[in-house]
């Protein structure tokens, strides 16, 4: 029997499965959502050979490799690992935010939380210290047990304008400095370049001038990389689109997008890399509406949860200078996302998680829900967060379930194409073919007793 299977495997060109890697894993009897946008396929199977997908297709065509571990996933749904196209790492300790918290340990801790939520890759938008390059190098030469990271190092901020993190991003004042800063980031090995064009509701004296953003985009393209911009205002988005920007990291949020911008985005393939609807939605609350949801609280410390629920915090947020403006900003972001979808602009899914109060992992599930609210079907939202996001971040071997791709997978108990909130029914998560914990409490990363009576456990334990 074993010999026969080996012969079949050799015939399929998969000899390595049964010989070199006796430990192939077969998942079978599930509904496949492959990340390409194709209609989900029931009664599917796939073979994971070490770190990659070796085969995927109908269960009826499955040729079982010798010695394979077979997992029967009857009633389950398998999709590619989710990708968050806009995050920040290592900036917070609970709700306190400070660049001094950034360390190999704090970043890896957050990457484990992302993976536990089924987010197996993240793109960081311009607030990494140089520690990120060794974290990324380690991931790329071994089998990561956390979300994969794509980085833009230190993004570019214009002096006196909005953006970046104090003590990390060195503002530029002219074109020469801007070009030099791009060269410096490229020399470090960034995956792309980030720039900010904003003045925080006019609170700051300036926004990045057009000649500086043009210099940054041109210099980035000289190196063959993508430039992605933080925007808020329609007029800046239009200027950047005409200058050849590759993508926007947020929605236009001051007014409705117009036909000229939509035409330019389509003609020049400017992607809406992230709409960050969950970011805008989070600002509209003094108390987040999901503090009691175990899917949220399981990765938050009891101390942080208590602060999030406290009267002091609610009073402080309600007294914020721009608090009353946020519902309008969210409404504009939702409407502009809908207009872009209808116009045929290319869109990804990203949250801007990572700064204080915007939480790794959970927010991507919220973002998917809001993208559906903005007009996508659940399947379109899932495709955007997997196959499309992988292309937008330049990750050729991620995002879809196809032979040769990395075996980064999420197994769900319920159908996310029927109700997008079913992405939260996480059964298991694989990164590079290896199951990773689906609970990663900040407490277990520290002394366990810190979480007594707190957020560990819950409805979706490791299974
Ligand atoms: Zn951001």
TrEMBL record:
InterPro entries: Amidohydro-rel (IPR006680), Metal-dep_hydrolase_composite (IPR011059), Metal_Hydrolase (IPR032466), Metallo-dep_Hydrolase (IPR051781). The keyword Signal applies. Residues 77-436 form the Amidohydrolase-related domain. It comes from the Bacteria. Keywords: Signal. The keyword Cell division does not apply. Residues 1-22 form the signal peptide. This is Amidohydrolase family protein.
